[in-house]
Amino acid sequence: MSNVVSALKGASYQGFTRVSDSGARGMITLRGDLSSAALQKAACDLAGCDFPGKLSLTGTSESGLCWMSPDEILILCAYDTAHAATAQLTEVLKGTHDLVANVSDARAMLCLSGGDPREVLAKLSPADTAPGALEPGTLRRSRLAQVPAAFWIDETGTAYVICFRSVAQYVFDILKSAALPGSEVGFFDLA
Amino acid sequence: MSTRLAKTGRLLNRDRQIEFTFNGKRMTGHPGDTLASALLANGQTLVGRSFKYHRPRGIVASGAEEPNALVNLGKGGQFEPNQRATTTELFDGLTAESQNHWPSLEYDIGVLNNYASRVMPAGFYYKTFMAPAPAWKHVFEPIIRKAAGLGKAPKDRDADIYEQFHVHVDVLVIGGGIAGITAAQSAAASGAKVMLIEQTAHWGGRAPVDGAQIDGMDTGEWVKNAVERLDQKDNIDVRTRCMGAGVYDHGYVLAYERLTDHDPQPGLPRHRLWKIRAKQVITATGAIERPLSFAGNDLPGVMLASAVRDYVENWAVSPGDRTVVVTNNDDAYRTAITLKKAGLAVPVIIDARPQADSPLIRSARDLGIRVEMGKAIAKVKGRRKVEGISLAMQAGEGAVLEEIACDAVAMSGGWSPVVHLWSHCGGKLIWDDAMAHFRPDATRPPTGAQGQGFVRVAGIANGVLSTTEVLADAAKQGRTAAEEAGFTAEDAAPPTAAPENQAPMTPVWIMPQGADIKLRQKMWLDYQNDVKVSDVQLAAREGFESVEHTKRYTTLGMATDQGKLSNINGLAVLSKALNAEIPQVGTTTFRPPYTPISMGAIAGEARGEIFQPLRRTPMHDWHEANGAFWEPVGHWRRPYCYKRAGETTEQAVAREVKNTRQGLGFLDASTLGKILVKGPDAGKFLDMLYTNMMSSLKPGRCRYGLMCSENGFLSDDGVVARIDDETFLCHTTSGGADRIHAHMEEWLQTEWWDWQVYTVNLTEQYAQVAVVGPKAREALDLLGGMDMSEETLPFMAWADGQLGDFKVRVYRISFSGELSYEIAVDAHQGQAFWDALIEVGREFDAMPYGTEALHIMRAEKGFIMIGDETDGTVIPQDLGLDWAISKKKTDYLGKRAQERPHMTDPKRWKLVGLETLDGSVLPDGAYAVAPGKNANGQRNTQGRVTSTYHSPTLNKGIAIGLVERGPDRMGEVLDFPKVGGPKSSGEVVQARIVNPVFFDPEGKKQNV
Q1: Which candidate from B616, B678, B831 shows the least CB-CB separation from A5?
Q2: Which runs of consecutive H residues, i.e. helices, occur in B733-850?
Q3: pTM across the whole model
Q4: Are residues A128 and B827, on separate chains, in Cβ contact within 8 Å?
Q5: Which listed residue, B66, B201, B490, B576, has the most CB atoms within 10 A of its CB?
Q6: Which ranges constitute the DSSP H helices of B713-850?
Q7: Spatial separation of the C-alpha atoms in residues A34 and A74, rounded to whole Å
């Protein structure tokens, strides 16, 4: 749909790590009793992967589940299918106490690829992003400089960042400043 | 005079020459020089003037503890004052200027202060500048302000960029001398994640200069090999030019890495602030030599003994042809030996100890150096630099035995372990009488969250002095730290060195010990602030007992060197003056940073465009491109108005108001909060949070609601829409979205945790546009897809549907009093939707309008605004909003508070309209005065203006405000005095109390 424009409009920057807008992504917030079998089944059926444990994410950035808090998970899907998926999930969970909301437009997703994404994150977040501390399968909620952000690293070493839409430009700009060629720290090139 | 030597200079690269300027004079140096060593090599012994008396100052030290050689470094955007020449690495093109003198360093008018020093002792300004009283503001203060400070304030914006870096390690070792290297080796051997940092550009600390042998090899060689081995390990990061700045709670340490100060690279980060979380910290921070207090010890040419040999060995600099060494310990003998071996003269070693014998002393004698025991320097001779010394007996009062000519004096009063980082987070100290210094008390370290110690000390920072003891101590500390961090460390043998036998030192706090007042007035403790021994003794006589008070009264240790050379000497003098023991007097508090760090490093990336996280709506770029004059609303930017070519702000606003009321206007309302509240208890929950009955709202309908604090004060307002049986969407003010969401979650999580309610903040999910004006319905019908008629979508209803290509939710609500639709679309489609509206709006001469037009239109209708009509002391009943308060509810947040006598007092100030008699605009916040004065002699008041504008609709000034019993006083005229200088005092603006709804009082326009 040409009417759909992500907050960063496809921007990208090649520093010692590439920083790029991942475009419009589908995201659905599901709040409820995470131990409920019905809720777990509904979420897993939708995303096609296992239900995530604490601090974890399962599946992929295109179709996955993220544990956000003791009573909240985030469902990742394609932008175009988010409304339908929200409606479907609401229907399946009817009668139970939970909240399903489409938040696809409220967020921006950025990608850090090549070079050293861990270093870029470490310049802006107090979370431990070292190898061994932040491994594929972990979703870390933290901050990047002055705004909240969630991030994870996949098997290829690529990092994904989710932030609020209104500050997408700020997040892009701080990631850009952190990825400035010549400003490599050389701390994580230990094993 | 100081000069460059032909040999030595282990840190220099003599193959290259570097050019730099000092006070406009061109000089040369070599890579490896600091600015200090280069200045000395060029014979520049005079480098600055002291703060108070403008006495000539020379280089005293070789490291971060340097008090005198402070320069204004660089120009323009790179300019930085108070840079220490000893820690500034020389680079090609460096420009430096000395500080605190006028017109020049050599001829400074400020030296007149020096001649007045008898009437300007410590604390003199507390006893002078008192009368006449007006003279303080107009004479004394401006002069003192000009004289205050050492360097010049920068005028240009900092041209460099800075960054920060967060890491988590098991063991952080601060200090890259032989102790730090050994401790890091030990810790890393266990597999722990280790970081080793060193503040200078070189590893090894003092040891390569002091000339020990470690494991049978030359120290420099040993250091090089050890660091190479560490560098190869993959579980340790080693860094030079990185200073441990502060130790904070729970193992949080700040380190300051100077990336390009030695080799400026515009466009690359200059400094990096490390934010390190360490399980264990080892401070291998060494020790600082103390000056001796003898008359004239501040003359250029008087230096710390260890610094003298540092300059000779590291930088091939001679302090002068003839250097007298004065000491109370063995260590300074090394300097005499080094000088002699470099081919320079040492006329005498003056040793204050009655007698002493050790291998070091014998080596000096064997080289033919004259040693005088039990002697002192009575005073140093020379006006601007050292020309000689007067020899006396240390036990006496300074009678001169002999005059000895010399060009420099190398002094040593002993060594003080660098305990700053240990102390920052609560580590305690013990006074070691034998060594006359404070050292860390290992039984009382800084403690972590579980009460465990998280800092250990290694090397001479522990007070341990011989090389082999340092190495053994460091290895042990490294091993233990790794164990505390949860690793198993092997018990490897530490490196070793030959045992050293030193004769005991004798504390010497005043030289000679019986010196009279004339001599004591010339014994300098603090070189920067000109604090003398006599000043500290004066403070004691005037009744100061606490070392903290004495510090502030005398300003001892309060300059940029943070008292590194003056602290211990000063408190020792104070103790003697109070006849107390040194440990009873104690030290002043050590505070981070260890040495000053740049403001840029603290700010990191936060400057310019990314100083703050700017919040942008989906239509931000369109507003920018179409003349938006921006207004900050929290971190959001909203258009205040859209200025056309040649328009003033006022003209733009007036145009927007008129156009919207007569035709069609569009407002970007995306910033308003939207919170989804869902669950079986959602209605009950909102009934508690709002003053209104929300649970009775029907699906498809909207209700304007008020939220109050527990104390009854109006906190936020907004329209609530009932989505379905269990679901509500609550609108909040733009500034209130995050705050109200947090407020909701706080109550749900802490008080009503068993209520079944979930909330989600959907503010950013939707772009929201207000389509407003008599032509609104026509325009939306043109877009097509939804029935916008009065019958289908009456005032205060909402509906989901389609408009053009867009899936929308339309709320029929109005803040302007006109026919108004607020339309929500998914945010990614916000810009496209706005574009579509602009397109259909052309036919109706539609214009976008901004926040100021919005505010004027609501004021014309008497609608209140949070933050204008509310200020934290206003309740809904003050604002005529009694209708929004449910009488049926037994409880809601604020209900009981609003029943307090003060809240139900009939004399409360209540909302009314205010219409000036002359049509002018009342000033914002203006007070209406009442007859008489209050108990404080201030005029009585009876009302104030809360919102005020020029109304383009009515072509006159309108205002709303709070007035005592206002609604009962319609038609009365009030006096609002003008403020702003002699011309307007006595002038008043008169305004009549009127209905706050100035326009369309029946509310017909929004109901069409």
Answers
A1: B831
A2: 737-750, 776-783, 830-841
A3: 0.94
A4: no
A5: B66
A6: 737-750, 776-783, 830-841
A7: 12
- Inter-chain CB proximity B237 and A190 less than 8 Å: yes
Which residues are within 8 A (CB) of A92 and not within 5 positions of it... i.e. 6 or more apart? A38, A42
| SS3 assignment, position B121 | coil
Whole-angstrom CA distances from B73 to B22, B26, B78, B88, B315 are 9, 15, 8, 9, 21
Mutation to test the A interface, candidates B279, B760, B766, B806, most A Cβ within 10 Å: B760
User: What's the rounded Cα separation, in Å, for the pair B193 and B236?
Assistant: 6
CATH code of the region A12-180: 3.30.1360.120
Place of tokens 């790590």: A17
Mean predicted confidence (pLDDT) in B718-734: 97
Residue A166 DSSP class: G
What's the pLDDT tens digit per position in A4-34?
999 999 999 999 999 999 999 999 999 999 9
Question: How many beta carbons lie within 10 A of that of residue B298, not counting itself?
Answer: 25
Interface probe, candidates A185, A189, A190, chain B, greatest B C-beta count within 10 A = A185
B985 exposed, middle or buried (CB, 10 Å; 0-12, 13-18, 19+)?
exposed
The neighbouring-strand residues paired with B317 are: B4
Mean pLDDT of B121-146: 77
Q: Which residue ranges make up each domain of chain A?
A: 12-180
A73 at the B interface (CB within 8 A)?
no
Check residue A191 and give its pLDDT: 41
What element of type H or E holds B52? none
Which residues of chain B neighbour A119 with C-beta distances below 8 Å? 165
CB B198 within 8 A of CB B178: no
Q: What is the ipTM of this complex?
A: 0.97
Confirm or reject contact between A125 and chain B (CB < 8 A): yes
Q: Cα dist. B130→B125, B133, B139, B643 in Å?
A: 9, 6, 11, 55
